[in-house]
Queue: 4 jobs
Job 1
Amino acid sequence: MGTNLPLAYLMLSAILFVIGGVGLLIRRNPLVMIMCVELMLNAVNLTFVTFGKMLNDISGQVIVFFVMVVAAAEVVIGLGLIVAVARRKPGASADDLRTLRG
Amino acid sequence: METAVFLVCALIVLAGGLGVVGSRNPVHSALSLIATLFGIAVLFLNLGAQLLAVVQVIVYTGAIVVLILFVMMLLGGDNEEEFDIEPIAGQRMLAGLVGLLFLGAMLAIIVVGKESIVTGSRSVTQAISTSTSNISQIGRELFTTYVFALEITAGLLTIAVVGAVVLARRPKDLQPLPDEPESLTDMGDVPLTLMHEETGH
Amino acid sequence: MVELVWLIPALPLAGFLLLLFFGNRIGEPRAGWIGTSAVALSFVVAVISFIGLWGQPDHTYELKLFEWIPAGNFSVDIGFLLDPLSMAMVLFVTGIASMIHLYSIGYMHGDSRFPRFFTYLNLFVFSMLILVLGDNLVLTFLGWEGVGVCSYFLISFWFEKDENAKAGKKAFITNRVGDWGFMVAIFMTFFAFGTVKYSEFLPMSPGLAQSTATFIAFMLFIGAIGKSAQIPLFIWLPDAMAGPTPVSALIHAATMVTAGVYLMVRVNPVLAASASWLPWLIAIIGCATALIAATIALAQQDIKKVLAYSTVSQLGYMFLAIGAGGYSAAIFHMITHAFFKALLFLGAGSVIHGTHEEQDMRRMGALRKLMPVTAITFIIGWLAISGVPPFSGFWSKDDILAYALHKSPILYAFGLLTALLTAFYMSRLVFRVFYGDARWGESAEGELANLDAHDTSAHSDDGADSHADVHAGFMPHESKWPMLVPLIVLAFFAVVAGVLNLPFTENLEFLNRWLEPVVGANQVHLGLGGVQLTIELVASTLVALFGIFLAYSVYLKNKVDPRRIELPFFANGWYIDKAITDFMGGAGRKGFELIAMFDNVVIDGTVNRIGRATRGGAARLRTIESGYVRWYALMIGIGAVLMLAFVLTQVSF
């Protein structure tokens, strides 16, 4: 692999991460927000694998394995929460949960 | 060859990402997400992480996105978000600013550092071997070096399942979420016990 | 036997507590007897301790009861220092106090708050004993404040009358001004020596820097000015005559006002180590006080006021002695003064009692035959204070004058002049009260009308403004035995107390030799003898007799119009009191209001403004917690960017 290509992977990850981040901050629909989180997680996964390749170490991929597991669990919980909230208020967005303000 | 694959997949990934963020319809966002995830899977293959590519397709695309689509259908997901209004003042601008700064910093690091940004020692755990298959190598690592993390992750999944079941249970009496109260300390005629019933039982 | 020293203050304390809780139930007259016996027993223990003290080395005994203030390096104990000075004071304090307690049983008969009076008296004796017996400055200060408080209680004992309450307040507040000096001195003493215990820091005094010693001694002198009524803080003593006469006798003649003298004598090593201008200052203030007070006394019409200013004047003599280096002379005069001044006050009380609460001299006269015992004892006291040999006052006053002459002939001259005035105004008092025409009753009206028309001196305290016709047909009478016995006892001592320190030979100077361990190193040694001594003694005698003769010719023979001598300037106290009041009410008040305003605006204002700023800041900070989850996520993002930026600055590529 050429010396530039891993760097290109890293740059791609960075861009994807930022897209996901900005999307998380801008979108109000909770499901879309979860999807943005998935984007960020995937960017991170890509970064890990790239580093694993650059360092010639298998643990980069193993970590990604774990990240996926945790991401799955997190999505499950998140969707459970969304269902619970949406039952009370159909069409609720992230902005509707703001009772805990100062 | 690798470079060409990379370029194509990169385009797919970025297009999907922008689609997730920019689609009005959440179903369109979900489909864009699938595109992104596929692109990432191919990139994994490009990097020689075969197991991960397959797991990505099966778990991420096949389970997580499907789950999201299920919930979207359950809750009437075609309500489109209004892009024009933004209740929080300055949110969009600041978000864009944060994003740009962050991206700028990261790109600067990568461009300036080049190879030297990877400072760790090589092959600390185990070198990626080309002789044994990727699956068996990862399997071996999982069950030797990372066995603790594996078991705890198993426990985590169990907890997640139980939690999801508890969260999504249908309570006895359904009352809509209260509108924002006038006074912060006084919730009006909604007693505090209601909050317990949401998550309790 | 000397270990019983702790009983000396404990007995009056027990009396105080007993009377405090059960006084009203015990009632008159048993409450009076309890109070008296407490102090009398204390006197007995004092005598026993005195006998025991002879066997102690240097006639000094220290007893520590317990630790009172343990504060790191600073430690103050409750302990007693029984040395020649404190022994002498304890003896005459308890002795005279028990006499006055006995007297009060008769004087306060019929008063509605009889038990309360003895409660306060016992508390006073306790405080005074703590003052004298304390082995460190803080205990002395405790007693100092205690006697001040009791003075306040007792002066305003008849507080139903406004003037009495005001007089009590005036005494306490004026004392307080002096107390500030005392406190500063205690701080400085601790700072300079690391201890406030007498037996520890007094021996170290010769090694003290002169400025420090001067500062400490000067601050203590300020305290003494307040407590012992020197110029300019003597203003409270004449007003204090509003209290019952036994109070005036005990507190404002024999004991409390002598506390300042005691203090200065106690710290004589510090005084010796200070700059030479300080003893000069003390001597000059003492001499000036003596003279000024004597001039005021000769223009007063109230018996008790004359005696009050006389006390101020005699206290001035004591400070003159201290300034001139004659510490034992000051103590000698203190002792004799306690006897004859208490005698005079109690006698005055007897006269007042006998003339049905009349205090104005112009309405008395020719009482000698009607109150013989009072008259004779009073005359003895008069001769003592005037300095007529062989009564005690002559010896002690002459002792002081000898030291004054040694210091400066000018001070000696003023001292002699004051002695002349003392003899004059005391004789005036005796002649007006006990001799001459009877101005009480019917014959008084005409003379009264004459006098009132020309009289310009103001009275504020006599309760008998009621016209003479109310008293027409009444006869002044002698007092009962509880009041007469103390008079007789005190008169006896006023006669013989001179033997304590006869100046003829070294052997006869008992008091000098007794006080040697305490003041010996710093006392000026006069080494008088022979011709010089005889001349001084004769001069003092002549001056006293001349003063009596002058008063005789003015008041009994009417050779000179009294009004040419009793000037309004004197009668109004050289307008010092008025000047102080005007200043405090006028310019002084502005200063105090300025300080109060500083406290309100700057200090309180700063605290309040900090509070308000915190609230305002908090209100503005609260907007960050908007409740929006996306906003919080944005904050996290901003934080991440900042951290990244920081890390970038640390990293080199």
Note: Chain A has a mean pLDDT of 88.
Job 2
Amino acid sequence: MPKPSDLLQGTLDLLILKIIARKPLHGWGIAKRIQTLSGDTLSVGQGSLYPALHRLENQGWICAGWEESDLGHAAKVYSLTPEGRKQLGRELKSWNRLSSAVQLLIQNA
Amino acid sequence: MRIIRIIKRRAHSLLHGSSADAELQREIEIHVQQLTHEAMAAGMAEVEARAMALREFGPIDQIKEKCRETRRVNWIQDFVHDLRYGLRMLRESPGFTAVAVLTLALGIGANTAIFSIVDAVLLRSLPYAEPDQLVLMFDVPLKQPDALSAISYRDFSECRDQNRVFSEMAGNAFHDLTLTGAGEPSIVNTADVTPEVFSLLNAKPLAGRTLLPEDGKRGAAAVAVLSENLWRSRFGSNPGLIGQSIDLDMRSFTVVGILPASFRYPEGAPHQDVWISVMQDPLFGPLTSAPGVRLLGVIGRLKPGVSLAKAQAEMDTLSARLAKEFPEDSGLTIRIRPYRQVVVRNVKSALLILLSAVGLLLLMACANIANLLLSQATSRGREIAVRIALGASRGRIVRQVLTESALLGLLGGVAGVLLAAGAVWSLQPFLPPDLVRISSIHIGGPVLGFALLLSLAAALGFGLAPALLATPSNLQTNLKEGGERTGQRGGRHVRSFLAVAEISLAMVLLVAGGLLIRSFALVTSVNPGFDPNNVTEAEVSLPQFQYSRPQQWTAFSGELLTRLHAQPGFEDSALAAPLPMDRQGAATFAFSIVGNPPLPPGKSTTADYATVSPGYFRAMRIPLLRGRFFSDQDSASNPNVAIISEALARRHFPNQDPIGRQMRFGFPPNSNVPREIVGIVGDVRDVSLSQKPGPMMYVPFAQAPLYGGEVVVRSSLSASSVAATIRQAVHSIDKDLPVTDVESFPDVLGQSISRERFRTFLLGSFSAIALLLAAVGIFGVISYSASQRTHEIGIRMALGAQRQDVLRLILEQGAKLALLGLGVGVVFALLLTRWMASLLYSVSATDPLTFGAVAIVLLGVAVTACYIPARRAVRVDPMVALRYQ
């Protein structure tokens, strides 16, 4: 099995916001979701997931609470705040701009 | 909304930091558990599965630390934590803490004390409203723009009435008058002013009123304003005093007001007791109508928006008009100077030099503490390496070490402020009285702020290098080597640099101190031209309204001297005015030599003047070089005679015999009286010990009597019994005469150099501290490096090196540092000491003797400081040394 490539710096925040925008989720679930959604090509170093979650929480984009979960016990579940939803919109827009620019570059290179 | 959420989060993290930590722990644990379950599901044993999960998750402590850092309140928690940790570290090594705090306290204390004087003298605003509008005015000869003199009453009133640049102008003079009637007769310091001075300086009376413009007119009723001090001490704070009369020089004045003790003009002048109109003064009143007598100090307040240049231009025009109109003013102009500049001029350079000196001292203290911290940091290398391995960032460690430094700095600052308060308090009696109003020197807000800034700056200064060196770039080496060598290589260079810097700073301070001490020694050992030992002086003044005629003055002085001569134990007694080192300064008058061609206009020859009784030269042991002393035959009815000093004879009678020649001079109005020179006496330093003697001319008291004078008595009896006898003799003639300022002449000389003594003492103490700090500094460096080299020394000795060789090895290292420091120090000293040339007396700022002596002392101290660790190093048993790690 090829080693999953490292997540592009800065896109982790976007991924987290996008994932919990569908439904609130705990850290383990977010990590798993990133891995499965990307067909196992992306793996989140757990080392960077939790600091990113805490940073987003401290920036007010997401909030968290301890809830019963599918893991069989209480887990810290993250959900998007109204401001976080707007932030997601902004990040998506800038991501689209960036990726289409890169796409263009690669095609013409 | 988001802001509120963020603030809530931060407050939560701050207040519930430990529960947030527990949640984080739990969150991570859940994740690891899930990873474990996954691995077990794939068929692994539980223990193995957990180990793999942990590996996959990554370094938990580092991740936790990263999460915590996102809270952004870390720094507060960290700070509190660092503070606690720092306090524990300081408590754990009380020796280090004591030495560091004491060193810092010396540095900060010295700075704070000097700054409190600077604050009072140079920075704090003057106690008058809008002080920057105040200017002083002086008469100045066109040809000598620096020879400032007072202004005549007529010129003052002309300028006051005609100028358009000053909102107000006032004149003042000082005179001692005799206050009689209420208790012992006493001398009161009287300010003779024009009434504008009170409104100009915005002086509000405590009771009654100040002088009004009508009080300043010629022929007005005599009124006086009293100081609060005199009112309390002499009149028991009697509220009914206003409207009553007091006697000054036996003349009645009506008291119209009391001024608060806080009012003083000029700032820093000796306290004044009484203010009267200059017109009412028995001496100056009549002289106000003499156009050539310049007696008033003049102050003006610039109109708002008027620049100094504009005011000076106006005064130039005015004084040109005066010079054209009045012959007395030809060749003169009026110069204005900002009040503040005149007041601080004398002390500014000395204070700035002292401030720089204490600044250097603080630098040395910082270097010393940096050295101490470095050796500490080295021994803490392992602890720090472990913390970095556990996830602490480099910045975090630097912050922690700096917090400890700041703690040390603040402790040192507190101790320093206490030290400064003690120093200012205990030094007060020794402060030169004319420096500044001593009571205004106190440790107030600005001074405390200065001390705080200084402590933090110092902490940053001595803490930064150890903090940076404490965080090594290569972690593995540190852990492996047990931290013993942490920062050693970089550290050794920094430590050597610090030692060299300290020695060079000490060199600068010692040279400065040495120059002042040498200069002071020269001043105190200078021959003043007379013998002050066993001489007592006392001032007797005759109230002018009672003793109004010169014949009365002569009669009184003759009677007094007869009685004093009759006293057993009094070797010689005489009367003179003024005496050398008189606080009011020397009396300088113009003279001309009969038979010489007249001097060109605008030029004059001057000499210091004294009127003396015949016994004066014997009493003061001033040698007769040619001719004769005065005798009792030189009375008012006989031809006028004079005695001149050697300097006058040499300068104005080159290659001639002055004896028998005539000079015209005298106390105004007798300035044109011809006097025959009958003798030449030795030169006397009459202005100050540090000023070379100038030309002097003496006249017999009987031919130029004054309303009083200084009694000098040479006697081997104690000064106090001499004083009592003088008092008794004076009071047996007139019980209402005050005898004041009784002092032994050596004391007078001592006071005349109090400024020099004070700054020499201060700078001398600073250099002593500097020497101590330098010794401690180099001792620390060498003993540390010797202990680091124990292993090497062991090998050398095992290979047959003799003790002397090892001793030499270590001493050489110290001497090298010391010589380097000396070299740098000499260069800096040469560059810096020239700023203090104005404080030196007959010593050059680059005096090779001082430089050489200081270098030898410093080298000696440095090598001695190295000798102790060197001895310790050679005593080590080679076997122990070899095993030493």
Note: Residues 23 and 129 of chain B are 65 Å apart (CA to CA).
Job 3
Amino acid sequence: MSLSKDVEVLRSIPLFAKIEPAKLKLLAFTSERLSFMSGDELCRQGDVGDAAYIILNGDADVMVNTPAGPVRVASVGRNDIIGEIAILCDVPRTATVVARADLETLRISKDHFFQMVKQFPQIGLEVMHELASRLHHTTQSLSAAKARLNQLEKVVDGDAS
Amino acid sequence: MDRSIFRYILRHSLRPQILILVLTLGSFPFLYATLELPKLIINDALSTRGLREIAGVEVGQVHYLFVLCGLFLVLVLINGAFKYVINVYVGITGERMLRRLRYELYSRIMRFPLPHFRRVSSGELTTMITAEVEPLGGFMGDAFSLPLYQGGQLLTILVFMFVQDPIMGLAAVVLYPIQVYIVPKLQRQVNALGKQRVRQVRRLSERVSETVGGVRDLRANDATVFERTRFGRELGVVFDIRYQIYKKKFFIKFFNNFLAQLGPFFFFSIGGYLVIMGDLTLGALVAALTAHEKLYAPWKELLSYYQLMSDAQIKYEVVVAQFDPQRLRPENLQTDDPDGDVDFRGPLRALNLTVVTDENETVLDSTGFQVDLPARIAIIGPAGSGKEELTLVLGNLLEPDAGRILINDHELQKMCEAITGRRMTYVGYPAQIFRGTVADNLFFGLKHRPLTAPERDPAAKEVFERERHEARRSGNPDFDLDADWIDYRAAGLDGPDAIASAATKVLGKVHLDRDVYQMGLRGTVDPDRHPGLAERVLEARRALRTRLQDPRLGRLVETWDPNRYNTNATLAENLLFGTPIGEELDPEHLAAHPYVVEVIGRSGLRHALLDVGLRLAGTMVELFADLPPDHEYFRQFSFISADELPEFRALVGQADPQRLSTLSPDRQERLISLTFKLIPARHRLGLVEEDLQAKLLEARHRFREMLPEGLQAAIAFFDPDRYNAAASLQDNVLFGKVAYGQAQAAERISDLLSEVLDELDLHDRVIEVGLQAQTGVGGSRLSLGQRQKLALARALLKRPEVLILYDAIGPLDPHEQSEIREMLLAEFENRTLIWALTRSEEAEPFDRVLVMRGGRIVEQGRYNELGGGTLAAAE
């Protein structure tokens, strides 16, 4: 549980991958190592998000409330990042994350993250880069999905007519 | 109070003054003799040869001389003794008078009518009571004796001179009339300036006290420069006045000195002529010269007495006038014990109440109402409708200009405060909380007169009696401050044992118990003052320890273990392994403490600590190098402040890790200070490795074992089985550090702590400790809401028959307000509650609602009987 190990973890996360090591070290230093016990909530759906968590060790369930009660929609594990959207824009938590077993995380608070971006615009660029590539990815998926939807609709229409 | 200072002095110190006068008169014959003797020595013993006869015995010339000289010495001693006794007695008398004057002025403040406080500032009153009257003490002591003593001396010497030679005597006093004529004229100008100066200094202190109270708003408006300039101007005015005073005062001095020096001129010319002519003996001239020199001293004293007197008279008059406002409350209403009982059940009739402000605004306009007590009465109306004044008048705190209030046909305004301040009470906004403990503030509503005298050993009793006797001589109260003043019966209690639980209950009612509980957890306990508590806390410590065996909880706390390094504590804490008491072992300066330095050296830790310090500094310099100096990270995360960064950068660049001991002592101290702040679990820098930890444990033991006698009182060591009186209650139970990096550790531990304490039935004991928490100046350590709650608790504790509230719970949140309102309405179901409310719908549950507008009660009745329009207008 040393700082250099945390830096390694941060570097393996695409969002932070290209940021220079010295800055990552500062980010790691100002972040908090936080352990959760199994059953603890990292965040709750609907709450205001104030931090992102990077999982260093362990697994957690991502739960979403549905009219039929909470439903597990995904699980996250080592080197996954949770809640990064919440620290970039003010949206409520979209899911509840519950530790499945004892969980080690690195907690990056929203304030500190923004401090870093403000201080070192290069981090902002990297984040922008990462988000743009995600957006590109999402857009592509979306267009693919739309194309398929269109096709399907045509098929359905064709059937109907 | 007497308008003239002399009348004041005579009224209160006639006997001592007479005694001083008698002593003074008694000293004169001896004074005359000391003047006569030198002449005898020169003219008789030295000039004429042959035998003399003293008391029938024949003596030779030399013997005669020695006898006379011996006599002279005795006379000098007697004179000195007189002077000493008189001076001491004069000093004591003056000090007693000053004490009396200050006390009278202070107790007059208590009697000021409330509106008067809008006109006077606390700064003014403070300077008047403290600084301005100070010189009066000196004057009052010798107001009569000084002119008599000095005048008598002057007269004695003059008589002596006239006896020697009338012309010589005349020559000595010929210039006095000029002085007597001119000096008072000049003095009057100085006095006028003095008056101005007093007023100006008062303004200064008013400014200072306003600044103290308003610093926040000055800063918020960037008005400090203007305010500074204004203060500078005021100081300039003082300077100017002083300058004028100096010029005039020193001119008087010059004038007096000049006239005094004219004396010898006359002696040498006229006296010398007479000696040459053979009309005067040389001895007589020398004696006259000596006498004149002696004459000068009392004359000067008389003149300066005159100056002092006019100064004192002005000061006294100016001050007393300020403490004599119109409609001062009669003193007996405050000091008398209750004469008979008043039944607060029955008709309350308020008739024709009229209150007019200084600005001639009629705030209560001959209005009144009648109601049968007990009743819960709401007063509603817009701001400025006279609500506040009505509550004040009903509380007997504001005297109406006309009209009266009758309770069961007893006139409220004539009741003494021993009734209206005990059976009734008033809580306004903002409520005043005094400096002291929460308990002091809570109980002072029960402290009216001393009830149970404390036990004293004979020596202490003697001291007390002496102090009490002295207090009486100065007209100060002779009550025993150390007695138990708390009126337990008024609170419905049997005695001191029940008060804590009563306090806890009442704090619960006003929702202040949780706050006081927290104060208790943060507070320290003197095991002597809370017998048995320490053992219970240790019990709680053990109970918590048992709970912490659960691994889910255990990871939240790292317990202090003498033989283990605590990774959640700083290195310094690990070394001390105790709570520092006072400044001596202040963690900030620990690295410079000689004993710490010695322990580090003996444990062979020095190099390791320097090495860690250097690496830590290197990391900090690396991490924080690119941040601007004002970046908040410096405050939040860095061991190094932005100002120190360049220094450390240089240090890191220059230091040779192999030869750290060659660094300057100052730099070594810096590095070790840095290392001391390291918390391994929090900082995760991996710098405190196992062998360093082991060495530090060794140093910890050495530190404790070798601790010199002089430092024993500077630290309370952690001991698993002993209570640590220097640490807070909470830390004593926890006996460890809340672990870093555990989600919600602080909240969970706090819950666990409360659980454990509750289980051991310690909840109320913690509140008792919280009652001893300090409230700060004017209650500044409490929030506004807490202050109001405390004032309300104080009012409830004494179970008044009539409780009057004006905006008393305004600063609380709406939810709490309504809960407290419900509680009060229930509490006062069979007592009287008079409450000026802000929102009219709150008046619904009250028995009677008075609607006010423009200083009049325009409608009254039950809430649902009132017209909707009236209620809307009352908002």
Note: Chain A touches chain B through 21 residues (CB under 8 Å).
Job 4
Amino acid sequence: MFRGMPNYQQFEEYYNKHMPEIYGYVYLRIQHNKALTEDMVSEIFLKAVEKFEQFDETKGSFKAWIFQITKNYLIDYFRSNKNKGTSSLDEMENQLRDNHDTQKTAEQSIEKDLIKEAMKTLTEDKKELVALRYFAGYSFEEIAEITKDNANNIRVKTHRILQELKRKLIQIQ
Amino acid sequence: MNNELNDNQLEKILENLAKEGKPDQKFQKALLKEVKSKYKKIYGHSSWIMKIFRFKLQLASSLALLTLTSTTLYAYNSNSIVTGDLLYPLKRSVETVEGYFADNEEEKSNYYSKMAERRTRELEHIEIESESYKNTIRETERMVEMAKTELNKVEKRRLPEIKIEIDRTPENTENNEEKINKTPIEKKTIRKLPETVNIENNNKIEFDSNSADNFKDINETSSKSIELKPEFGKLEESISIPITPEGKINITEQVETKADADDETTILRSRIQKVESDIKRLKEEPPKNFRTDSKVKTGR
């Protein structure tokens, strides 16, 4: 059945609501590079516009749909960078230098750098969970919907990641 | 950094870190503008314009469909749409499609009868003795023939069943024992007794199909059997009835069971007969004057 033309107003609503979340998620996944994040988020949302006709609310939320597009985009990005001989971890080294917190206190800056350093050692799926929880700002239930997992599992996994991060922070210090 | 960092503190640091990952308002607006531009490029300049366009398109399609359906119904139901008319091919196409749904002899016969009746009604709107008139009569006759053929098939299936038991044992068993005493008794079931029986030497024996007695005492010694052929007897298969050395055929039993007359078949037969008589009358005594009806077509 013909679903009809997508509604722009609806897309704009989705954009206003979910763009910051996607931005935060991408920001962490590509190791805190603002310029690169902006480029990527632009491409992700322009891609979403192209595919918006295929979006079916009855099959899932916009959040899950846009996240899937983002995830696929990042997979392609990391794959192509791997072929070029760089990786997300290599980039992280560069991103760590790209610190915009010049106005923050030195202590805060050190704290953040240490956290970034600790997060560098996390596996990709753990980084993704941190990105969704703290950078995209999703609830456990929302992450469960996106990752097609159980909310309680997500809660437990997140707790374990925090313990791991704490241990790594101690090691780094 | 404090070594005894608890979960809440760590979460707070992460949340602070996440604040870096918030988009600038300027970027957010610029991207929205770009998104809007791309949206328009892909889906049209204005969604409400597109909505009106789509509504009009749907309305036009619905009207076209409605018009086509109404025209088709009109063409099919109108007797005044006759050969040579613009809508006549449409009418005939619908009739052809209707014919596809007739999938047994009775339905086919019914379909051909209906077509014959429809052609007859069309005759009232065609100029008498014109080529179209003659063609329509021929078409009606063709439909009648086809209706009859199909109806005959139906009736043949429902013909009275006659069972014949042929006793091959000769009457004078003592004299002919050596020749035929081992011949088994044969039982055959046939649909209908033949009206004409061909004998091998081309002699013809006429007999009444309702009387088994006519089989007896056939003085034909040159042949060993009578062949009952399907084309003469409307039999399902050819059967052979042996003649005794004395030239006799013994039929010991004849049972006839009449099939109940089917109301629908009877009605169908009478409908065909009516069209047949109408056509016959029109051919024998065609109306003398042209009709004055403005709808009467001159034909070609």
Note: Residues 161-257 of chain B form one domain.
